[in-house]
Specification:
It contains 3 helices and 17 strands. It is an alpha/beta fold. It has a single domain, classed as 3-Layer(aba) Sandwich (Collagenase (Catalytic Domain)). Strands 1, 2, 3, 6, 7, 8, 9, 12 and 17 form a 9-stranded mixed beta sheet that branches. Strands 4-5 form a two-stranded antiparallel ribbon. Strands 10-11 form a two-stranded parallel ribbon. Strand 4 and strand 5 form a beta hairpin.
Amino acid sequence: MIDLLRRAHARRSRLASFMGSSSLATGIMAGLLAFAPAPAHAFCRTVTKDLPPDYSPLQGCYTDGLPLFWGNACVGYSVNRAASANLPLAAVTPIIDQAFASWTSVTCPASRAAVGIQASNLGPVDCDVVKYNKYAANQNVIVFRDTEWPYSDPNNTLGLTTVTFNEETGELYDADMEINDTGKNLTISDTVPPNGYDLLSVVTHEAGHFFGLAHATDTKSTMYASYKPGTLTLRHLSPDDIEGICDIYPTETTRAVASTVSGGTFTAGACDPTPRHGFSTKCEVDTPPSEGGCAVGGPMGANGSGRSGAICAVGLALGLAFAVRRQRSRMCASVGLARSTSD
């Protein structure tokens, strides 16, 4: 079975460490970028359009595109079984669970009710590859990179979250998190040395990206783009972080989406943390349907409001204009007071 989506798009967000006093690059030509006017809040939502390479969160939220959201009432995540050579699975798992719980245990101030998204640890997995399968089973994996950081700027980057989503709606399909443990002195205690990096702080920030939040404009927010070594600050959500997660998931049945999608309100599906196309602990080979055959796709949205139909290799679905395609781009957020970099 295949999903009938126009494009499943992947992008990345990263957290970096405070590496000096050089300021963010802010010299952007007026009129070229779409930024929200200064709002009363400082949280920003990740959108379907790529950020410009010289974008800075201090300029305001980038609003060109559709905001991202999980269509289900709950989502699953899994930790790679190997964890880190420096931190074993048994040590990091409760830290990661606590980081996700920081977001899902929120009480929304406006409604005085629980935030409308939950997350479940589906258990360790063997797969350590960041990818989304369009046909085979998946896992929303959290993996530690302790031998080599496979991206640019390994000295500054602490974490990277890659999300895959439907460009037509903004619905999230997959999210994978990578933690940089290549000489980063990650710690799991409540006492962090001056040159140490609090794992709970790092994962709590990355979990915000997992849920669809972008870097905040408020330097006191967990979702601000930089982390100062030796601190525990990002462990604790700010009022603005709470407002952000509640804005996306006001209730377990409602998602705040773009006005062009379902009239601005998306009805969430029932709680099922199983990843899209099923759950697997292995890195499954994403094999498309055999040529000449047809596969019937399910609804595009979790609530069944999306389009559905049939796609055949020989073009049976002519006129539906559906294509299953995945694009990759890197979300390169400028970093706090650290040097401005891009992945």
